[in-house]
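Give me structure tokens for this 276-residue protein.
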Amino acid sequence: MPTDSKKTLSDLIAIMAALRTPGSGCPWDLEQTFATIAPYTIEEAYEVVDAIERQDMPALKDELGDLLLQVVYHARMAEEREAFGFEDVVDAIAQKMLRRHPHVFGSEAERSAGATPGFWERIKGAEKGRAAASAPAGVLSDVPVGLPALTRAVKLQHKAAAVGFDWPSLKPVFDKLKEELGELEAAIADAGAAAPRRKAALEEEFGDLMFVIANVARHLGLEPETVLRRANAKFSRRFAAVERKLAGLGRRPQQSDLAEMDRLWDEVKAEEGKEG
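Here you go.
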């Protein structure tokens, strides 16, 4: 295949087929399974989000390509099992988009009605109702287990809230947050407990605290993964600035102490405030 011409989606599908061809393909690619590739799929999705957060269009182009490769990869492995192919993936999502946008692609009456409030949820509910006819499922059963934990917590809470299992305001959520923080503090203070039991208690109470924090984010209309990524980026940026200040003094963090680094941290925060 010439490397100097602009490639198409068909070329990418053919490249993946060649990589997965026994005898002539890539040994590493031939060893992969859905399970071994799945972590890369998640990683590539995060890298797309990172490029968007940084507003880096060249990087976004590359990361979208990497994410597309994941779809092609999974589809190829499914085709090898005679389960489905890439064309079936495309057809399924295209049919879903047509079905879920009757105000754009539907009958004249549906287009005239426009996007009525709640139409998306009604269509999704009808789709799930048809699927559930053969396999009834619980309210939370369609929330993917493989989602990032904070994102999944919010989705679980959304699902429960949709059937009325939710606090009516933020105040009781904060009350629950304080309660869970108190239980974590109590578990920390229980120094006499056997090590395995104490660790299990700490894990449980910290998990409960994180779940309530996700609920606070949901009530505020925030996406916890997004805001935590931004907090991570802010911490990284400020700590790098502390390192630069230390370098200006001829030292590295390992040669400093908490008091000095804390003072430099405050300087960095103050300088960022002036820039803002």
